[in-house]
């Protein structure tokens, strides 16, 4: 089933052949990790760059050869990694203070220990106050350090002038104008008038330099981590956010590269009935192109210091992006460009620049509403997309592993979805209640009749958390339409959801070739799921660390709680982007799952 000659023949004749020659075309298993969620005995309040080394040691024990990190970019007050304040800078909260270079930290070790104790992981959530606490300590260390004669630091500043000066300026102006967006700054700073900028730099020179110094320290640490991984034949896959926050150094320094009157988002679909409005401005690609795509090239040039591969977030947005007026929540959104015949050439122009600008292999997050052109462009370029197991279906049910794209990463879950065990327990066999209600309203069905129909169509005992579980007796979409008293074409979204979800658990067990109680959950079922996903045709198998941990009986019940997830799209909550691992990296290295997981990967020719 697994023919490496097929891999070579395809990937080494694609448009990214030079990248594949660098990393090889063997089948690989990887782990996807939010760095903020891991911790070790050496961490100060949050996962740190040097903790990646401990993670790598676990990967070796488990037979894993790719580490995928969620974005490490500097974030704002929402701490959302895909809404960063810079698409270049790394967040200072990830720095390992005891390992900073060219500075004497001995006088500060007591303070460092105090921070470790104060921000020791508790309550399964990150305490993000650690970020400012670490910056305050770093400021005191910087003030005690002479940096003028550090050759490496001076070279770093020179090599990264394109973004580093603007970023450091933006950070200091923001510090002095808390809770005020850049569009409300004094006109001179807002409009980047030379005299105003020059005056500000003279007055705030030391603080501006401090932010540059922190970025240099982060650069050195992450570069050293990459070298550590290279020696152990582990690839590092970075995640480059597709968009950047409206309140960011990028938008302030290059406003012509963004359409500030618009907000990016996603159209309504069966998973998000209301659609999504993200707030980040879409790119003005013509202006970026007129500048020779320097903005894109510099981002990739910097990321190349750290990563072997990079994930293109929201890849389908390169072809067309869903936009709506920024302050208007009533006007429907639309795609830009509007004309479908422009989508492919629009995306190709950007992809070609990205591929030619870096040695890194691009990987695509091609989920959501995907235009047809995306598939053949990815195939031509040899860029792996994502085949998402629970949604990768055909009319007969779940697609077998041999139908997965060779140029794909097979996944059980993503950071924006529930973990696999929670999909199985709370979502499989259901549809979104909001989608059902909205579709009925759109079809003109009386609210009283909708309430009555819910009692007949759905199993009340198994419907919970806003998910409606189909009654087994609703054996056809025609029957559902008759009960609703509606023409099928007026409730097509409900009928499509029915086709996707009715008796979904039974179909999934048939796909696995596994018999078990559909109302239960066990590590045997998780293992069977892992065996299936890893035996797929996909060149990569990239699983969230939480899905791997579900192979442990005790951790399965911790992870298998409703709302235990990384992020809920379309929501703003302290529960988003804050979840901590249920065990330390030291404990992970000794975990009982390591040997059975390694066996699963070896049997699928991935270890």
Number of strands: 16
Strand order of the largest sheet: 9-6-3-2-1-16-13-10
**How much strand?**
5-15%
Structure classification: alpha/beta
Taking all residues together, what is the mean pLDDT? 95
In helices, the fraction of residues equals 40-55%
Tally the helices: what do you get?
A: 26
Shape: globular
State the end-to-end distance: 16 Å
Largest sheet report: 8 strands, parallel
**Uncertain stretches of 5 or more adjacent residues:** none
What Rg, in angstroms, do the CA atoms define? 25 Å
Could you explain how this protein is built, in words?
By secondary structure, the protein is α/β, with parallel strands linked by helices. The chain contains 26 helices and 16 strands. It has an 8-stranded parallel beta sheet with strand order 9-6-3-2-1-16-13-10. A 4-stranded antiparallel beta sheet has the order 5-4-7-8, with no helix packed on it. It has a two-stranded antiparallel sheet with strand order 11-12. It is globular, with a radius of gyration of 25 Å.
């Amino acid at each position: 089933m697994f023919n490496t000659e097929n891999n070579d023949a395809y990937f080494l004749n694609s448009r990214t052949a030079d990248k594949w020659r660098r990393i090889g075309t063997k089948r690989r298993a990887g782990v996807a990790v939010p760095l903020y969620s891991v911790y070790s005995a050496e961490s100060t309040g949050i996962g740190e760059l040097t903790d990646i080394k401990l993670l790598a040691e676990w990967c070796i024990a488990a037979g894993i050869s790719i580490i995928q990190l969620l974005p490490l970019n500097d974030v704002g007050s929402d701490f959302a990694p895909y809404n960063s304040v810079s698409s270049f800078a790394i967040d200072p909260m990830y720095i390992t203070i005891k390992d900073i270079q060219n500075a004497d930290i001995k006088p500060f070790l007591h303070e460092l220990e105090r921070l470790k104790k104060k921000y020791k992981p508790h309550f399964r959530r990150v305490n993000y106050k650690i970020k400012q606490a670490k910056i305050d300590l770093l400021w005191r260390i910087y003030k005690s350090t002479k940096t003028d004669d550090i050759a490496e630091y001076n070279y770093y500043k020179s090599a990264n002038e394109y973004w580093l000066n603007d970023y450091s300026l933006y950070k200091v102006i923001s510090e002095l104008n808390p809770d005020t967006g850049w569009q409300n700054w004094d006109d001179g700073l807002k409009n980047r008038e030379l005299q105003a900028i020059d005056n500000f730099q003279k007055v705030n020179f030391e603080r501006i330099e401090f932010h540059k110094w922190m970025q240099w320290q982060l650069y050195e640490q992450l570069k050293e981590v990459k070298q550590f991984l290279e020696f152990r034949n582990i690839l590092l896959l970075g995640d480059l956010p597709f968009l950047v926050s409206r309140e960011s150094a990028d938008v302030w320094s290059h406003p012509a590269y963004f359409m500030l009157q618009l907000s990016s988002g996603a159209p309504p679909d069966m998973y998000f009935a209301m659609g999504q409005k993200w707030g980040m401005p879409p790119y003005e690609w013509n202006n970026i192109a007129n500048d020779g795509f320097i903005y894109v090239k510099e981002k990739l040039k910097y990321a190349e210091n750290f990563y072997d591969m990079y994930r293109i977030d929201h890849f389908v947005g390169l072809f067309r992006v869903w936009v709506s007026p920024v302050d208007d929540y009533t006007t429907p959104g639309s795609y830009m460009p509007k004309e479908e015949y422009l989508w492919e050439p629009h995306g190709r122009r950007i992809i070609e620049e990205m591929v030619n600008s870096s040695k890194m292999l691009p990987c695509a997050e091609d989920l959501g509403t995907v235009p047809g052109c995306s598939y053949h462009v990815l195939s031509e370029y040899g860029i792996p997309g994502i085949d998402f197991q629970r949604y990768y279906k055909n009319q007969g049910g779940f697609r077998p592993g041999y139908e997965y794209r060779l140029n794909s990463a097979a996944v059980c879950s993503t950071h924006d979805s529930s973990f696999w065990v929670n999909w199985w327990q709370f979502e499989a066999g259901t549809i979104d209640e909001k989608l059902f209600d909205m579709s009925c309203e759109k079809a003109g069905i009386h609210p009283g009749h909708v309430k009555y129909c819910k009692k007949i169509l759905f199993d009340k005992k198994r419907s919970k958390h806003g998910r409606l579980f189909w009654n087994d007796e609703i054996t056809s979409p025609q029957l559902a339409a008759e009960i609703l008293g509606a023409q099928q074409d007026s409730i097509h979204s409900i009928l499509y959801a029915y086709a996707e979800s009715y008796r979904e658990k039974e179909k999934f067990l048939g796909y696995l070739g596994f018999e078990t109680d559909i109302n239960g959950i066990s590590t045997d079922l998780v293992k069977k799921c892992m065996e299936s996903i890893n035996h797929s045709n996909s060149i990569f198998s990239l699983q969230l660390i939480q899905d791997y941990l579900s192979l442990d009986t005790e951790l399965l019940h911790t992870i298998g709680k409703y709302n235990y997830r990384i992020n809920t799209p379309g929501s703003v909550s302290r529960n988003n982007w804050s979840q901590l691992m249920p065990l330390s990296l030291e404990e992970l290295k000794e975990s009982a799952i390591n040997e059975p997981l390694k066996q699963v990967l070896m049997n699928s020719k991935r270890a």
